[in-house]
Amino acid sequence: MSFSAIRTPLRRGVLSASFRPTATRSSFRKFSTAAPPPAPKSSNTALFAGLGAAAIGGIAYYVYVSQSDTAREAGTAVRGAAQTAKVAANFTPTKADYQKVYNRIAEIMDDAGEYDDGSFGPVLLRLAWHASGTYDKNTGTGGSNYATMRFEPESLHGANAGLVVARQEMEKVKAEFPWISYGDLWTLGGVAAVQEMAGPRIPWRPGRIDGFAKDATPDGRLPDASQGALHIRDIFYRMGFNDQEIVALSGAHALGRCHTDRSGYEGPWTFSPTTFTNDYYKLLFDEKWVWKKWSGPKQLEDKKTKSLMMLPTDYVLTQDKSFKKFAKAYADDNELFFKDFSAAFSRLLELGVPTGQFVASDAWEMKTIEEQSS
To answer: Do the record's keywords include Oxidoreductase (predicted)?
Structure first.
């Protein structure tokens, strides 16, 4: 089935009785960074002609799931040769080239069949988040620059359970656009996920490079859902975020659900897990939350329907005085949430990337499929 044919029902979802949209797409465009002037046209055809034997030699690399870390490092070296050939061929990807990648991600995102709620969007967003959230400002390590989740043991960290699904889907895009780095591909996937599921514009720019297994980060750098306010601050302050940004980034839980075979937790946060809204915050305050009686890890469920869940790290947003102030503001104002999430998420996606690597001084706006079709 065509991805465009199911986009509308996916976005509509099943909204909670308390939720009423407070902002349309036009209402949050003003919070986005303006796109730069159009760059000279380019094409994948010109690239492939210049890559020659280097590209052919690297084909086996892109079968991601069947390779060892050593093979992936070898593949990175092959791509280094391909990059040299790319420069020799005078191929420089333009914004239009990255828009093609975005479009392909959007197509794959909506071609999920029976997976979860019919969309790969939430898991692609989680991949971008977890690939970037390993940054440590004190050591300058981690972040999205090297895409080190391709390697063990980082790929096996508990916080990354289930993300092999997203990485496998991104391999399909990588095979079609081998010139894009994994870091750029994964973060662009996060941008597409938010924007295509009715969320705000996310300013984004390319420039990340692929690293090696030696660059992988240690376990424990991503949030542990069973913990409280102190843990959350330790994790996010290490990345360089403040309390307001912590609460804004937590709004990513508007999308998707937890799985017992991955995190151990179970259920969606909202009634519309494929539509990006401020309903996550509204439900935190409007519903009565009780501890779920089950054999799994400690989590909350809504008393009324018992179909929604909140993690301990979610519920703390209503208990901590500083966090609560921002969470309540986002519950009351969807436009404010969109603006602040856009700014924080865009910065998250750039953690660990040296400024000099970016191809543009200002971030770009990628057009949604809907905008391009109209």
So the answer is: yes
Residue 175 and residue 234 share a domain: no
Q: Domain check: are 206 and 58 in the same one? A: yes
State yes or no: is 294 an active-site residue: no
To which H or E segment does residue 348 belong? Answer: helix 334-349
One-letter amino acid for residue 58 of the chain: G
Q: Is 231 a catalytic residue?
A: no
246 and 361 in a single domain? The answer is no
User: Which residue is catalytic, options 130, 186, 253, 289?
Assistant: 130
pLDDT digits (tens, 9 = 90+) for 235-276: 999 999 999 999 999 999 999 999 999 999 999 999 999 999
* Mean pLDDT (the chain, rounded): 84
Which residues have CB under 8 Å from 41's CB, separation 6+?
Answer: 94, 96
Q: Which of 239, 59, 78 has its CA nearest to residue 144?
A: 239
Q: What is the 3-state secondary structure (H, E, C) of 153-216?
A: CHHHCHHHCCCHHHHHHHHHHHHHCCCCCHHHHHHHHHHHHHHHCCCCCCCECCCCCCCCHHHC
With a CB cutoff of 8 Å and minimum separation 6, the contacts of 299 are 258, 265, 266, 267, 291, 292, 309, 310, 311, 312
Catalytic position from the list 129, 179, 269, 364: 269
Residues 296 and 200 in one domain: no
> What is the domain range of residue 126?
3-17+40-86+93-222+349-373
Residues 355 and 216 in one domain: yes
Residue with tokens 């709620």: 117
| β-sheet bridge partners, residue 364 | 204
